[in-house]
Design a protein that fits this description.
Elements: H1 3-25, H2 37-49, H3 62-65, E1 69-72, E2 75-78, H4 83-97, H5 105-132, H6 137-149, H7 152-155, H8 163-182, H9 190-203, H10 208-221, H11 223-248, E3 258-261, H12 266-275, H13 281-284, H14 288-297, H15 299-302, H16 306-323, E4 326-328, H17 351-368, H18 371-395, H19 400-405, H20 427-441, E5 458-461, E6 473-474, E7 479-486, E8 497-505, E9 509-515, E10 518-525, E11 532-538, E12 555-562, E13 585-593
Antiparallel strand pairs: 1-2, 3-4, 5-7, 6-13, 7-12, 8-11, 8-13, 9-10, 9-12
Helix pairs in contact: 1-5, 1-6, 2-4, 5-6, 5-8, 6-17, 6-18, 8-9, 8-17, 9-11, 10-11, 10-16, 12-16, 14-17, 14-18, 16-17
């Protein structure tokens, strides 16, 4: 490659990295207020108190609300792996110099969003240089674009600072070093490989699979590296055991130790991880279909390469592991569908294996196929890669409805429902799903029972999860609805009632309130956050027909708030930091009462 072409190539990669940062950092989708929330707070505890204990942050209620903490021997701990907090200490140190506090939810979110976007950025050159070891520039750039924007790199790693973020980068770096060594570009440093493998395991225990597979690879293909790499892993592993015993009285922290079988069907999970419309790898990464076909066609050419065998074995072991119903030592059960997330989050760790296998198939195709066949295969990859980019970079990063799909609560029962896949979720499909599946299954309620943010039998449509230990719930969007079924004790023709709403608003708001599509009044708030009580007279016509007969509970009450001035806190900050939900109404209680 000429010097000018080399410079041009890297300008393209830099432009691609800048685009990746913009796409990820500008996303309104925010999974920071979930499992990753304790990573940066634990890093702050390490930095300021020299411990992973979180006793110094009793005001960090998010940990308890999200069930992310455990109390052991009178001390409070973050439930998830310690590796990401340890490696995040430098970033938190810089944030503290800037006056940020990771116990503050908005500032924790802001730093998570930055680190998530940087994860996507760093994936660009790493994937590109791995591709360039095997493929020409254009094909390397193509595969980089597809995997960065058309996989969980964007839709998962770009939405929060998960434990998978650093695991993915560490695993990808390890694969790149081994590939350079395999091709004779540069001998691998066994000490560096050992450190990378251990740090990946420290961030996420499933990375132990790569440790085992790499040790096996070195034993068969690069024995001179075996003992030094194994020695580094062993020494660091022993140090980790000493730490865990001193801190917990255990050989490893609770998250790292399976305590038994959880609930779940292994075979359903095994199939679901491949073909589920909402979690299947082949569905969400359609560009893998020609790769699978190519792998079958060129298997004799690919099989002799020990590095490709490593990738295939690693991928298979990872698939089996994330499909296994396991309960961890901290009481958490591994859920193959990844719980509140987009797409196949749990496969993010093993994406480097898919990247390497894709590269191997491309190289075999370029070395074997005639030019017309190469073009057809490339076009198929490009078209299906474009579909994947739509799924992950648009639907996963910019469409709020796949994000809200996860909050329905019963989506796990519909992971194989092609009529309601997550990546095609819309306002209409979510409303249809709630009315067809959630509402009929909801227990009937009295018309006069108060509704709180945690009430059972109530469908909250376009609302965020309860906050403040269940004291309030924010609307999310320009319209928010509350649905419930009434019991047979409800009068068939209720008389006039009064709707009482106890709520605050995000800054000044003017909202319109409807019951069963009949307007009952407006909330005109000029304050911020502080709750007030609003009362509206409800005509009998608004509640006509909420029951059908004395034996059935089929009546439905729909209370809808139109919130045209909803806005995100981030939009009010000059730097765009903070909560990106469209907030309007902060509901505390709602009740229908007879007029006095």
């Amino acid at each position: 490659m000429s010097g000018g072409r080399s410079i041009g190539s890297w300008w393209s990669v830099l432009a691609l990295a800048a685009t990746a940062f913009f796409v990820a950092y500008s996303s309104p989708i925010d999974f920071t207020y979930s499992d990753p929330w304790g990573n940066l707070l634990t890093a702050q505890a390490i930095l300021e108190h020299g411990t992973i204990k979180l006793d110094a942050y009793p005001e960090a209620h998010a940990l308890s609300e999200l069930r992310l903490d455990t109390e052991l021997d009178g001390h409070r701990y973050y439930d998830y792996p310690v590796g990401t907090p340890v490696l995040a200490v430098p970033a938190v140190w810089l944030a503290r110099l800037a006056g940020m506090d990771m116990a503050d939810e908005d500032e924790n979110t802001a730093l998570q969003q930055l680190l998530a976007a940087l994860t996507v950025v760093f994936s660009v050159p790493l994937i590109f240089v791995l591709c360039r070891l095997y493929l020409p520039y254009a094909y390397s750039l193509l595969i980089t674009v597809v995997f960065v924007f058309g996989s969980s790199v964007a839709s998962t790693l770009g939405t929060a600072f998960w434990s998978s973020n650093l695991t993915f980068l560490l695993n990808l770096t390890t694969v790149w070093i081994l590939a350079r060594d395999r091709l004779g570009v540069r001998p691998a440093n066994p000490y560096l490989i050992g450190v990378l493998l251990f740090l990946a395991y420290l961030c996420r225990p499933t990375a132990a699979l790569l440790v085992v597979v790499v040790i096996g690879y070195l034993a068969l293909a690069r024995r001179p590296l075996l003992w030094r790499t194994s020695g580094v892993v062993a020494v660091l592993g022993c140090a980790f055991v000493v730490f865990a015993y001193a801190e917990f009285g255990l050989l490893v922290p609770p998250y790292y130790a399976p305590s038994g079988l959880g609930s779940g069907d292994f075979w359903t999970a095994l199939v679901g991880n491949v073909v589920s419309p909402s979690r299947g790898v082949l569905v969400l990464y359609p560009f893998l279909l020609p790769v699978v076909v190519g792998g079958a066609v060129f298997h004799r050419r690919l099989a002799p390469d020990p590095l490709l065998r490593l990738a295939l074995i690693w991928l298979g072991l990872h698939w089996i592991t994330v499909s296994s119903p396991v309960t961890l030592g901290n009481g958490h059960t591994v859920l193959w569908w990844g719980a509140w997330s987009f797409g196949n989050r749990l496969f993010a760790d093993a994406l480097p294996a898919l990247i390497l296998l894709t590269i191997g198939v491309f190289k075999a195709a370029l070395d074997t196929l005639a030019p017309p066949s190469q073009r057809r295969a490339t076009v198929a990859f490009v078209v299906l890669g474009g579909v994947a980019i739509f799924i992950h970079s648009y639907q996963g990063l910019y469409n709020v409805y796949p994000f809200l799909w996860s909050q329905d609560g019963t989506y796990v029962d519909h992971l194989f429902d092609w009529q309601h896949p997550q990546f095609l979720a819309s306002a209409a499909s979510l409303a249809r799903h709630r009315r067809q599946h959630l509402l009929p299954a909801a227990a009937p309620r009295s018309l006069y029972d108060p509704i709180t943010p945690t009430s059972e039998g109530v469908i909250f449509e376009n609302w965020s999860l309860p906050e403040g230990n269940g004291q309030w719930r924010w609307s999310n969007g320009t319209s928010a609805t509350i649905l419930f079924r009434t019991g047979p004790e409800t009068p068939a023709t209720p008389g006039p009632l009064v709707l009482e709403v106890v709520a605050g608003t995000f800054q000044a708001q003017r909202l319109t309130v409807f019951i069963n599509d009949v307007e009952v009044g407006t909330i005109d708030s000029r304050t911020h956050w502080e709750p007030a009580t609003y009362r509206f007279n409800v005509a009998a016509s608004a509640l006509a027909g909420v029951t059908s007969d004395e034996d059935a509970a089929t009546g439905v009450v729909e209370i809808r708030f139109s919130i045209p001035q909803a806005r995100s806190p981030a939009s009010l900050n000059p730097d765009g930091r903070g909560d990106r939900r469209l907030l309007g109404l902060c509901l505390r209680e709602l009740i229908l009462v007879t007029p006095t």
